Amino acid sequence: MNRKSMQMLTVAGVALGAMVLTACNPTLRTHGYRYTDGEVPEIQVGEDTEATLLATLGSPSVRGTFEENTWYYITDTREYLAYLRPNTLARRVIAVRFDDDGTVAEVNEYDASDSRQVNYVARTTPTRGRELTLLEQVLGNVGRLPTDQISGQDNLPGGAGGPRRND
What we know:
By secondary structure, the protein is an alpha+beta fold. The chain has a domain at 48-117. 24% of the residues lie in helices and 23% in strands. The protein has four helices and five strands; from the N terminus they run H-E-H-E-E-E-E-H-H. It has helices spanning 3-23, 50-57, 134-139, 147-151, and strands spanning 27-32, 62-63, 70-80, 87-98, 104-111. Strands 1, 2, 3, 4 and 5 form a five-stranded antiparallel sheet that branches. Strand 4 (87-98) and strand 5 (104-111) form a beta hairpin. The longest helix is centred in the first third of the chain and has 21 residues, at 3-23. 6% of the residues are buried. The model has no long low-confidence stretch (mean pLDDT 78).
């Protein structure tokens, strides 16, 4: 091998090695509400209102479905590594409950240790009819077409019905 081809192989090897190493580098992503400058917001019970909270923190991540007067600010930090399922490193939920006047009545903070696994139900709803096999699906319409449509005697090209014009 000459010197030029050795240099090209070396450059290709270094580039391939760099791609392999960067593919295994984890990526951190933060989802949801992001605190400005990493500061934890200070919410005063009895003093802050919905308007002051909107001005300070912005819109909540989620509003309560059943508790309409509860706002949730959710932060979730995940680590992504190549093709693997993401791993949750940190989770923080701030739940702010308002009274009927719109002032803050209660503030609760939750982290990943407060979460629970939810088991999904794998039931399916039965449908009417029966399931067809692959062969029944492929050959299902064979013999069902009317012969007058195939012959083209009574119809215009493209399937338009009606009598033909005599020009």
